Structures are given as C-alpha cells and as structure tokens.
Automatic annotation (TrEMBL):
Gene Ontology MF terms: diacetyl reductase ((S)-acetoin forming) (NAD+) activity
Origin species: Alloscardovia theropitheci
Lineage: Bacteria, Bacillati, Actinomycetota, Actinomycetes, Bifidobacteriales
Keyword NAD found: yes
Protein name per UniProt: diacetyl reductase [(S)-acetoin forming]
Superkingdom in the source lineage: Bacteria
Gene Ontology biological-process annotations: acetoin catabolic process
UniProt record similarity statement: Belongs to the short-chain dehydrogenases/reductases (SDR) family.
Active site per database record: 154
UniProt xrefs under InterPro entries: 23BDH, NAD(P)-bd_dom_sf, Sc_DH/Rdtase_CS, SDR_fam
UniProt: NAD(+) binding residues: 14-16, 35, 61-62, 88, 154, 158, 184-189
Catalytic activity: (S)-acetoin + NAD(+) = diacetyl + NADH + H(+)
Keywords: NAD, Oxidoreductase
Length: 258
C-alpha cells in the first residue's frame, strides 16, 4: 500500500472533515480518519473500503499530545507512509464578549490551538523519520481572518492557528514541508447550525434569522457545502499547490477579499 499517498484527517467523521476524507479518498489517498467519535469514523472507513478506497478509523482527542503522536504513528504503520495531515478538528461555542469562562477557554484552546500545534509537531516528526517532505494543512476560518461578533473564543483560536501556520511554514520550508491553512465561511455543517441556533436564541429570533446574520455578506449568495471546502483542501494536499506555503486559502464564497 506504500504506493498510495497517506493522509490523516482529524475530526474526520462529520461535516467538513467527512467531506475532506471522501474527497482525499477519491483523489487516491489512503486515509486515516481520526475522531473522538470512533463509531462515526469506523462507519465512514467501512464505506470507503467497501467502495474501492483504503481507510482506517482512529479514536483521537486532539488536545492530548501523546494521542496525536500515536495516531500519526498508527496511520503511517497501517497505511505504509505518511504524506499529509489535515488538522481539522475544532470546537466553536457561541461566546459574546464578557461570557468566556476559564473552563471554556481551557477546553477550546486545548482542542483548537493546541490540537493543531500537536498535529503540526507529530506530522513534522513523522516526515523527518520517513526522510521526505509533506503537507500540513490547518483549519482556520473566515472568523480567523476577521473578527466575528459572538465568537470571541473561537476567533481567538482561529487567529492563533494562522500564526502557527506561518511560523511552521517558515521553519519547515527547507525540509520540503509546506504548511497552509484553509478558512471556510458559513458551511452547512452541524457545528455551524448550532452556532446559528445559539445566536438566534440569544436574540429571541428563529434559526433562519440566526443563519442569515452570517450569510448576508457572501458575494456568491449561497451557504457553503462541506464539499466546497474539501475541494480547497484537495488542492492544498495535492501537487498543484507545491509552490504555496504559509498561505490561508479562503473558501468562503467571497466574504473576505485579500
């Protein structure tokens, strides 16, 4: 199986993660699906394996550094190589200014920021062990490019991930390792629906109103499908992006222009 490129996707069992796993599998990658929800990850792996793909499921809490290291080792061992990591797992509680608790701060920062950092470190170690370059792809957000009301905690972690991406890109370029990020906009995922619901509840409005507060600024006039984001990740994981590093690819339908 070593002739197949190998990718690991964290938070791979649902939403953007699932769409990414399916896209990378279609692109010819053997995929390790790492998720806290092992049942969901295994069901997805079974589906891919039954349809000509190669996939394994790994239970993973990305906030646990040793567990991230072990997941990368398992992916490389079982799938025969290691070429791409997509640090996709994340949490997005609704947190207007003044509402963030120390407990929330610790949890979300551990998962989003530390989880990404542990993924960067584990992938770098593995690329070095295997004696070749690779691609590290991190999940930031449109909310990691510009501040979004009601998302104090989420935004702060997603801005941090752009910093992690840029530092790693500078350091690792001489080793043939590229490090990029993707910034989804308003995507039809369970996480986004929950954010819209919470914003609506806080304002005494309905879910549709909650979603419209986020979607009104999309130039292309529609919410993102998870597959739209997966297509951008596919580009960052493939050879056509070999000369791109330290970049944040905004896949948001034209919410932010840079």
């Amino acid at each position: 199986m070593a002739d197949k490129k190998v990718a690991l996707v964290t938070g791979g069992a649902q939403g953007i993660g699932e769409a990414t796993v399916r896209r990378l599998s279609a692109d010819g990658f053997a995929v390790a699906i790492a998720d806290l929800n092992l049942e969901g990850a295994q069901a997805l792996a079974d589906d891919l394996n039954a349809n000509g793909g190669t996939a394994i499921a790994i239970k993973l809490d990305v906030s646990d550094q040793a567990a991230v290291d072990a997941a990368v080792d398992e992916a490389a061992e079982k799938l025969g190589d290691f070429n791409v990591i997509v640090n996709n797992a994340g949490l997005a509680p609704t947190t207007p200014v003044g509402t963030v608790t120390p407990e929330q701060f610790d949890l979300v920062t551990r998962v989003n920021t530390a989880g990404t950092m542990w993924g960067v470190q584990a992938a770098t170690r593995k690329f070095r062990e295997l004696g070749h370059g690779g691609k590290i792809i991190n999940a930031t957000s449109q909310a990691g490019v510009v501040g979004n009301p009601n998302l104090m905690l989420y935004c702060s972690t997603k801005f941090a991930i752009r910093g992690i991406t840029q530092v790693a890109a500078r350091e690792l370029a001489p080793e043939g390792i590229t490090v990029n990020a993707y910034a989804p906009g308003i995507v039809k995922t369970p996480m986004m629906m929950d954010i819209a619901h919470q914003v609506a509840v806080n304002a005494g409005k309905d879910d549709e109103w909650g979603m419209s507060t986020f979607s009104k600024d999309i130039a292309l006039g529609r919410l993102s499908e998870p597959e739209d984001v997966a297509a951008g990740i596919s580009f960052l994981a493939g050879p056509d992006s070999d000369y791109i590093t330290g970049h944040t690819l905004e896949v948001d339908g034209g919410m932010q222009f840079h």
